[in-house]
Amino acid sequence: MLLVWHPLHSQQSSPGCIGCRKKGKLLMSASTAPLYALLRWVDPGTGQRLERLAPLPVTLGRATGSTIPLNSQGVSRQHAQIERAADGSVIVTDRNSSNGTLLDGQRITRSVLREGSSLQIGPFVISVTFWPPAPQAQGAIQAGPPPRLWAVPPPLLVRVTDTLTGQQGDMFATPPVMIGSQPDNQIVLPAAAVAPHHAMLFFEQQQVIIIDQSSPTGTFLNAQRIQRAPVGTADTIQIAHYRLTILPLPAPLIGATQAAAVPSPVNPNEATLIFQHDGNTLVPRTSSFHDGNTLVPRAPSQPASPPPTVEAFPPAYFRQPFVSVQQLRSSGLPVTETTYLTIGGGMGSFAWVDHLRIAGVPAEQIISLSPEPKPNSRYTRLCQNSQIPPHERLRSHSESCPDNIWGFPSYGVREIVRSLRKGKIGNALGVAWQLLGEPVFADTYTPRSGDVFAGLDREAARIGWQRMSRMGRARVIRKTDDGRYVIAFTQTNVPPEWRHQFIIARYVHICVGYPGIQLLPDLQDYRERTQDFHSVVNAYEYHEHIYNHLLQRGGTVMIRGRGIVASRIIQRLYEVRQHNPNVRILHLMRAPVTHGHRHGYARRKVENQWEFEPFNWPKSCWGGTYLIKMEKADDQTRDQWINDWGGTTTARRKDWRRIIRTGLREGWYQQGFGNVKRLERTPNGQLAMLVQGIQPGQPENWLFTDFIIDCTGLEHGLECHALLQDLVTHHQLSLNPKGRLKVTNDFEVIGMGNGDGHVYAAGIMTLGGPHAAQDSFLGVQYSALRSVDALAAMHAPGVHRINGFHSLRQWFRWVRGVQP
Amino acid sequence: MTPTLWGRWQNRFFLLGTFGLLVTLLYGFIYQNYTTPLAVLGYVFLFGLGWDIIYQAIVHLRWDGDWPTSFQIAAGVLEGVWVWVLVHYIGLPYVDKNLPLRQFIPHYGTVWLVIFIITQGPLRALLPRWRYYGGKWF
After folding, report:
1. Which residues 608-637 of chain A have a CB within 8 Å of chain B?
2. Alpha helices (H) along A696-745
3. ipTM
4. First-to-last CA distance in chain B?
5. Averaged over A558-565, what is the pLDDT?
6. B100–chain A Cβ distance below 8 A for any pair
7. Would you say the pTM of this structure is higher than 0.90?
8. A604 to chain B: which residues are within 8 Å by CB?
C-alpha cells in the first residue's frame, strides 16, 4: 500500500498537472477551504464528554461507517447528514430516520444549520460549531476575501519523524490538520497503531491546539497523554512511533504568504516522500511522478543524513549464523526470556496461544508480539473497510469458532439460543432451518462479524491475552548459541530508550498474515503517477468517501475482481442506489468464465460470470478427504490441487444473486471484459480507461468512470514481508512451489530447528504446504492444534495433549468462562 | 461434517456400540425383549457398512466433498426403511417378521436421534481432532 505524507510539490508544475492535485490542499484559497464541523456531546450511556472535528459532509447514524457513529437504538443507521450547500450555507438533512432529527427543539427534514445550534438525534444532544467560523450570513464564505496563496491562517510547518527507521520529512499543512492512518488525512501516518483519524491540529485564538480524536493508542505531548492541549514549537507530539514537531516558519516564507508568488520552499528533489507499508516496517520505495509532460523516475527520498538518535539495530553480530546469548545480555538493551513466543499477534497467533493455554501452559510462559493491541484489530479493520460492519455476516462456517477450539457450541447454535432468550422465535427458526438445510435447501449459515469479535474478546480475557501481549514489531529472528531463538524487535508503546529490545524463546510461532494490500498493476501505476488516492482505492482501504459522494451526487463505479469482496462492495453500492438511482456499476473482468473449476468429478457452479461455493475452499479442505490427501501429497501435487480448488469465488446467496440479475436486466450493472491499456484523469475529474478487447483484433474502447474499487485482494508474496524475507535469506530456507515457507505436516519451519528449539509457522505464508485453507479461522486453528500436538509429543514444558477427558474438562471450563 | 469412509465406519462402530447400545438396552427393558432390538441394532450396523460406501461415492461427486446435514437426515430415514422392509417382507434372523412399526420406529428413531445430536457437537468436546480427520476416532 502506498501512502504519502503530503508535502509541497515543486512549484514549477503547471496548474493542470495531473501529479499536483495535492497542491490544492496546501495552496488553498479561502473560498475553497474545507469547512469543518466541531461537534460536542455527552454520551448518554457513560456520561463521557465527547468532541469530534470533521470536514463536511458529516454523516451521523448508528452505522459504523458514519462519520459520527451514534450507538443507540433510538438512532437510525443513516440518521442525518450535515453538508455544505452550493450557496455556502450549511444544511442538516434528516435521512428518513425512524425517530426524526430535532434542530433547536424543532423536528426538521432539511434546514440551515447555524453556528451554535443544537441537534437532537435519539438520546444524543449535539452542539455544532464550525471551523473556520461559520458565515454570519449565507454566502459569506463565497464572498470572502479575494483568493490568497495561503489559506488563512498561515500553514504549519510540521516535521514528521519515524522513530523506527529514522526517516524524517518536513511538510506544510493547512489547519485544521487531520492526522491518521487513512489516506484522506493531511498527515498520513501509515501504521496499525495509528487510528484512521487519530488527532487534529487547529488554530484557536492564535494558538495551535491538538485534539486527540479518542484514539485507542493515544496522543502524547511531551510524553504526557493528552485529550486537548496547546502546542508550541518547543513541544513534541508522539503518535505511535511517529514524532511530530512544529517548526517555526522560515523567514522567507512568512513574507511569501503575503506575496504574489511563493518560491519553492523545499528542494523539489526531496518534495515527495513515499512509503510502502509492508506490514512490518516502512521502507522507502522508488517512485515516479508526473512533471509536466514527461515521467521522471525518482530515487527514493532519504533524509540527507540519518538522525543521530537512530543507532544500528539489530546489532552487527546478528549477521553471524548464531547469536551469543552472553553478547545479548551485555548489550545494555532489555532482554526478555520466555518459553513460547508467537510473532504476528493476529488471528493465527491467537489460535496457537489459545491451544497452548488449553494444553496447560501458563500465561507467564507465553509472549505474543504484535503491532496491534487486539488479536482481531487488523481483521476487524479489513472487514469494516470491505463492507462487513458488525451486523453483517462473515463468509465463515458456523463451526469455525476462533474463540472455541472445539467449534462447539457453534455460532449457529449460539445464535439460536440468544434469539430464543430475546423472544425472537422467527430468527431462531430461520437459523435452525439454515443449519439443517444448508447448502441444498437453504443458503449456508454464516455468523455475524460482531458476534465473532465479541466472542474473541471474551476468550482473550479468559486466557489472559493482555498479560501475554507485547506491542512491537519483530525485525529479525536468529538462532542462539544455546539452542533457542532471539527476536530483535522494536516496542512501540514505551519511552525511546527502551524501544529496541530482544526476546529469547525456546519455541517460536510465526503467523504474520498478509503483508499488505495489493493493487492491480495498472491501478498501482496510476496512483504512483498521480497520487490520486481518492478515485482509485482498494476495497480493503478506507473508502467511505466514495459512498458519500454517490449518495449525494451519483456516479459510476468500476469494480475489478470477482470474489467475495467484490460481491460485498456491489451489495453496498446497491444499497446506496436505493437512495440515489444515479449510481452505475461497471464490472471489468479479464475474460468471461464459461465453466467452473473442476476437481475429479466435482465442478463448481457459475452464474452470470460469478463462480459459487459456500466458502473460499471446498469444505473438505478443513476436514475430511481433501485435508487428509493434502497431507500425504508431495509439493507438486499440492500446488496443482491448490490451483484446482482456489480461484476467486463468492457465496451463492439468494438475495445477492437477485441484485446481480436485476442490475443486469435494468442496465445499472454492466459487465465488460478486456485488458487495461491506459488509465488517465480527464479534465473534468473523471477517470478514463482504455481497454483492449480479449479477442485479437477487437477494438480498443475508452471507459469513463468516477471511481475504481480494486477488489482483487490482499498481497501475499513472502518477498513483501521484511521479517520473512530476512528469515529466508539469512537461514537459507527453501520455499515451497508457491514461494512460501516450507513446513512439515506439524507446521514446523523446515531448516529452522536449533537443538531443543523449534519454529512453527501458520497462515497464508505457508500456502502450498500441508493445508490449503490456512487463510481461515479453522485453518489456523488446525495448524495450531498440529503444532501443539507436536510440542506435547516432545514433552515441551507444560503442554499436555488436548484429548479425551483433559479436553472435556477444558471444554467445561470454557462453558463456565474460567481460565484454562 | 465432511466424513471419510474410514471415519464413517469408526463412527458407526463406536457410536452404535456405546450410545446406540445403551438406548437399545433401554428399549429391551421396556419391550421385555432384548433379542429383537439388539438384532435390529446389529443389522443397522452391518448394512450401514455398505451404505457408507455409497454415501462416500456421493461425497466425491460434490464440489465441497461434504455431507450436508440434510443428507445425514435423509440417510437415517433410508437406512431405517431398508431394515424394516427387509425384516417385514423378507425376514432376518433373530427378528420377528411381525415386528410392529410402533416398536421399531421409537427404538430406531431414538438411537438415530441420540447419535445425530452427539455428532453435531458434543463429541468434539471429547475428541477435538475428530472433525478434522473425517470422523476418525483413532
Report:
1. 613-614, 618-620, 622-628
2. 722-731
3. 0.96
4. 17
5. 93
6. no
7. no
8. 63
